[in-house]
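Chain A, query sequence.
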Amino acid sequence: MPSAHLFIHNVRLKAPKKGKVPDFIIAGIEKSGTTSLFVHLSKHPAIEMVPHAVEYMKAGKLDNMKEPHFFNKRWTKGLDWYRGLFNDNDKLQGEAASNYLFKEEYIKRMSSVAPHAKIIVALRDPVARAYSQYVYSKELYRKLLPGTLSRLRADKDRIIKIVKLRDISFDEAIKIEIKKGISAGTGNIGKGLYIDLLGNLLKYYPRRQILFIISERMKADMSGTYNNIFDFLGLEATKIDFEMDVLAGKYEKPMSSWARETLSEIYGPYNERLSFLLGHKIDEWGVKDECASVYS
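Chain A, predicted structure.
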C-alpha cells in the first residue's frame, strides 16, 4: 500500500492535496533570456506556465509571476504550496527561474521534488551577460534609492554604501570582485562560470533531461530554437507570434575595452570546457556588439 507521506531530505511532508510538480523548469541563467522563454512558451496551446501565479500575486504571496522562487527563497512553504501553482491536467506545466543554478543546494532540492522534470538552460555570452547584470542592477539602485534613503536617514554609513553601489563603474565593480575572489554563482563575474554551475546540475539530472539554449542563437533564429524546444518537450511544433527583446533596454554606453579583454581572459578556459560539454564551439560569443540589449 503506498505511503500517505513523502520524504524529502529526511523531512516528512504530508501527501499534496492539489496540483502537481512542473513537467519542465527553465532553470536560468540570469540575464540570458529566461523571460523571453517564459513569454513565448506560454503561447503554446499545450503549455501552461505557472498558471496560478496570478492568484498568489493578488494575495501578496508572490512578487514575480515568472519566478515562484520555491527552491531558493520559499522552500519552507512546502510542497503543497508549490504544487498549488500548477494544474494537474493534460497540459505541460512549467516554471522559470533565473537563479536556481547558482547554488548546488537549490538544484538538490529541485531534483528531490521534480526528478523527472526536463530542464532548460539559457546561456548567453558571459562577458555580455556580466555587463547586462551590472546595468540592470544600477537601474534598480536608481529606482529604489529615494525610498531607501528615507528609511535610513539615521544610518549614514549605509547610505554612503548604497550611493557608492549606484555610482560605481563597471570597471571598478570587476576589480573589486577579482580582488575579493571570483566564486561560481555569485557577483557579476561568478554567475558566468557556466561549466561549474552546470557541473552541479549534472550531478542530479541526466544529460538527456537537459536542453541548453544559446541565447544569441535563439535571438537569431526564434522559430528554429522554439521548434527544438517543443521537440525536446515532446510537443508538436506550432507557430508562435514572437516578441523580440522582451523587457529589453539599451546600454547608455559600451563596455570598456579593458573590461571586455579582462573578462574574456577570465572566461576563456571556462568557455573551452563548456564547449567540450556541449560538443561544439559557440562562435557567437566574443563578438563585440555595442548596441546589445539588456535582456533577462
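Confidence is low (pLDDT under 50) at residues 1-16. The longest helix spans residues 126-151.
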